[in-house]
Queue: 3 jobs
Job 1
Amino acid sequence: MRQSQERLFIGLLLVIGLSSLAEPSFSGSDLVPLRKQDMKDISAAAKAISDMFLDPTTYDAQAFGNAAQTISAKSGKTIIEHFNFEVPAAGSDAKADILEERDHFARLADDLKAYADALGAAAQKNFGEMTSDMRMKPGEPMSGGPFGTDVSAKRLGSIPAEHSFHLMLQTCKVCHARFREKHQ
Ligand code: HEC
């Protein structure tokens, strides 16, 4: 009897121990570096795309498409989920406003993904050289900012990829200005 009680106790310990290991939650110590790393990856991908627009002879459809895919995968839902909690948090520059203005924040995260997907589609259409279709025409008006912009695939498919790219960079700026602590 005593022995079986002991065994039950050990069994319970194991179950509790394992279930706490299996819990699929982030702790502050891993979520903040994770989302910061995602932002760094987004930034590196945007830089790679920017370099190709600056010097179209370096355009590589595969690399351009991969960079767009990186931004797409790390934006939208991924950003929204990673800033759902641990806001504010130690070591994080995320502002509490994110929780107060969830819809605005989510809209910017989704816009970022829409622009990245438009860039990915452009790379698939232009697998040889960077065609003039991808470039902004001299004097082309930069219609629409990140507010109230129509980011449907249809509309973004009708403007040059370079234009979508500039709108994407505005989205980064707007989100940071509103939702990220400034460093002196
Ligand atoms: C929807 C809002 C939003 C968008 C859009 C967004 N960011 Fe961020 N970004 C943030 C927030 C919030 C932080 C602060 C994260 C933290 O410290 O927890 C951040 C942090 C960063 C950082 C600093 C990471 C670090 O190591 O501290 C970089 C770099 C960055 N973003 C680049 C970009 C670039 C480039 C784009 C656009 C291509 C972009 N972000 C778009 C919200 C956004």
Job 2
Amino acid sequence: MLVGVDANFLSPKASVRAAGEGWRTVVIAPIDAGETVAAFGGSCLTRSELNETTAGQQAQAIQIDEDLFMVGETAAVTGATINHSCAPNCGIRAGVLVVAVRDIAVGESLAYDHAMSSGSDFNDFECGCGAASCRHKVTGNDWMLVELQLAYRGYFSAYLAKRIAALVTVGAERRAFAL
Ligand SMILES: [Zn+2]
């Protein structure tokens, strides 16, 4: 890593602000649908290695493959300040990119849904995002919810898209067998 350079990328159209005990990433210039707003960097750890890190690092980590997690160097790294929402304005591309799923106005906070990236129980949490569709408990099994699979198509991390495709294939075979 380059000394003095943040491991993550954050669009100059967004700014990190303190919010309660944590952080939020506020839009300061209009963002178009499809724009990349952030990219995660850091260290790639397996689950057993992740278990050796602090609770703070685990809370900031993003799962990028079946047994790989991207973990930042410090607690409040850029990108890790992009929070979860059950009604997100961003999605995940290529495992580590955060992209706008719709036009995002100045003053909104950037958020993606952890269901798009998490497929294990390393960071289950109680959600109070305030969305009408809030699931209240966010877990590593949320990618299995059919309504989320439909809503977030194209915005799941590749390893989760592969899991979902396998489920769909099994379902199609069962239907064909039943006919
Ligand atoms: Zn929620």
Job 3
Amino acid sequence: MTTRGHHPAVLLPVLVCVFLGLAAAITSSVVAVLLPDSGHHGSRDSSRHDLANGQSVYVFASRKAGYTLWSVTGPMESSVADALDELRSRKIPLRQGDPRPAWLRRAVVLQGDPETAALAPQNSRGIAAGWPLLCLRGRTDRNVNLRPQSHDAGIAWVTVGQAKRAFPWHPLWWGLLGNTVVYGSAMLSCWYASVYAFRAIRRWRGRCPACGYPTDGNSSRCPECGTPRRASDQATGTGSSASATVACSSSLQTTSTLTSKSSSSDDR
Ligand SMILES: [Zn+2]
């Protein structure tokens, strides 16, 4: 308790800023979902990924700030995929490779007969949001031919205005950690900057930095709250007032010199 005046508390601000940083990370994901699609800043790319069993998967990835949507079609037979290549390559250049993140590559969970379900093309959509790092994810899977109902994982559908929005809520742990560190440390810096600025102002006004009580230059502790004064403050406590007197008298001299100069210039 005796060091209260010297060092601001550490544990409480850190805990508060971790909590607020986490809240800001989650908020960034919500804001990214709600941001309108901007055709100029967003980007789209499509790619075809051939699986080992002779089937193919199509992935369309569209991105805007803090938001990525992967639309996956497949798996489908290679002959069907070739026909689709013809159609799609005219509009959007096609790349090879699988741009799906690992959590989107996992097998689609389907209800019903697994044999027929495995052959039918599926649409699955993966959504990840968050800024500066993607920090929350979700996917929604639908079997195109067999069943209309979708299987959602980590998606909350919310009607905003007239549109239904898909908010992801499964954590992407590294993104969540990174965003929490970014936002939390920014808040912590602001916290300490304001604490130190506040104390510096009190000290400059000759008051106790902890409680604001006016201190005299000689005592080693604040008479009000008992906070020990800094050694540097005590050393300059009497010295500063003495130097202030000197500075004051010298400024008086300067003023008088200036006055005499100006008066002499007026005479001419
Ligand atoms: Zn005090």
